[in-house]
Amino acid sequence: MNDVVTCGYFPGCGGCDLLGMTYRETLKLKLDKFKKTILSYRDLFKTEQIENLKIIASPLQTGYRSRCQLHVINGKIGFFSKSKSCSVQNNLKPEFVEIQECKMLMPELNKKITDMKFPLNYNAKIELYLNNNTVCERIVEKKFDNYFTQINPSVNQILINEVINFIKPQQNDNILDLYCGSGNFTVPLSQKAGICGIDSKIHAVSSGRIEYIEADINAGLKILERSGRLRSFSKLLIDPPRSGINKKTMQKLGDMDFNTVVYVSCNPDSLLRDIAGFKNSGYLLSGIILFDMFPFTRHIESLSLLKKIR
Predict the structure, then answer these.
(1) Residue 131 — left, alpha, or beta (φ > 0 → left; ψ -120 to 50 → alpha)?
(2) 147 versus 276: which is more confidently predicted?
(3) What's the distance, CA 169 to chain centroid?
(4) Strand 194-199 versus strand 260-265 pairing type
(5) In a domain, 144, yes or no
(6) Does residue 106 surpass a pLDDT of 60?
(7) What are the tens digits of pLDDT across the range 245-262?
(8) CA-CA distances (angstroms) from residue 69 to 21, 156, 252?
(9) Is the pLDDT of residue 92 over 60?
(10) Contact 302/289 with Cβ under 8 angstroms?
(11) Does the pLDDT at position 186 exceed 70?
(12) Pair (56, 71) in one structural domain
C-alpha cells in the first residue's frame, strides 16, 4: 500500500490518473473527495455516517482487471489518451498510445495482447474479457455496444456479499432488480428470495426463482404494472448507469412501497441526487460503503441502504 506504482505509458495512456501516488494515498484522496461531494447534500446524512464512512480497498492493486477495450490502429494495439487538449471545441483527436501490456490487466489478458497480430491496415475496437478462466475476444461494432460486467472480480465479490448483507433476502421476499445486466446480483440473491430483473440487454443465467424482463426500465415497470405485479415487490435493488435514475423512473419508484432500497452507484453526484429523491418519497439513508473498484483511477463505487419510514 505504501509503494508507488510506475508505468512506462503514464501519463500518456490516460487510463490511470493516480499513478505517482501510493495506494494508501489514493484511497484517502477518494474518501476525501466523496466527503466533499456530500457537503451539498449534508441533510441526507447523520453526522456519524460521515465520520464512520470507509472505503474498502482492492485486494489487488495491479493485475486486477478482467476486461478491457483496446483500439487497433493500423495494426497497432493501444489506448487513446485523455488529454485535456483533445476536445470537441478544438477538433483534435486524442493521441493514440501503443502498448505491449497494461499493469492493471490480469496476466491472461496481457498474454493475449502479446499474442495478437494484425495487418498494418487493420483498424478496430476490440474487447478482451475473462469468462470461466478463458480469454474471450470480440469486436465492438458501435459506440453503445457494451456487455457490462464488473472488471475487478475480487472487489466485485466483496460488493456482492455486502449487497446481500444490506438487502437481507428472505424466502418470502420478492425483490425487484433494476439494471440487472449480467445477473451479477440477481443470481446470488435468487438463492434466498424470489427476484425479477429488468434491463434493456440481459446476459444472465436463468434460475427457477428468477424472472427476467428484457426491456427499457420504464417499459419493464409498465409490463409489471399491467400484470398487476408491480406493487408485489418488498425490496428494490438498483445499479444504474453513471447518469443515475431518470426523472420518470424515480417518480414511478417513489409511488411504490418498498421497505428496503439498495443502491449501487459509480457516480457520487447522481447517487446523492437520487438519494434526495428517495428521501422525498419517505426513505432515509441507513448505511453507505465505498469500494475501490478501479485502483489508481478517480472512480469510486458505492453501496447505499435506504429504509422506508413507517
Answers:
(1) beta
(2) 276
(3) 22
(4) unpaired
(5) no
(6) yes
(7) 999 999 999 999 999 999
(8) 25, 19, 35
(9) no
(10) yes
(11) yes
(12) no
Residues 5 and 43 in one domain: yes
179 and 274 both lie in a single domain: yes
- Check pLDDT > 90 for residue 156: yes
Identify the three-state secondary structure at position 24: helix
The span from the CA of 69 to the CA of 213, in Å, is 28
Contact 283, 306 (CB under 8 A): yes
* CA dist., res. 308 & res. 310, Å (int): 6
Say which residues have a Cβ less than 8 Å from residue 143's Cβ, sequence separation at least 6: none
Whether residue 243 is contained in a domain is answered as yes
Predicted TM-score (pTM) of the model is: 0.91
User: Which residues are tagged catalytic?
Assistant: 266
Residue 84 confidence (pLDDT): 45
**Domain limit, last residue, from 86, 106, 139:** 139
pLDDT at 147: 56
Residues 248 and 310 in one domain: yes
Task: Return the closest-CA partner of residue 105 out of 96, 95, 114.
Answer: 114
> Considering the chain, what is the average pLDDT of its residues?
91
Confidence of residue 60 (pLDDT cuts 50, 70, 90): very high
CATH number for the domain including 298? 3.40.50.150
In the structure, what pLDDT confidence band is assigned to residue 90 with cuts at 50, 70 and 90?
very low
Q: Domain of residue 89: give its range.
A: 67-139
- What is the spatial order of strands in the sheet that 210-214 belongs to? 55-56, 283-291, 301-308, 260-265, 235-238, 174-178, 194-199, 210-214
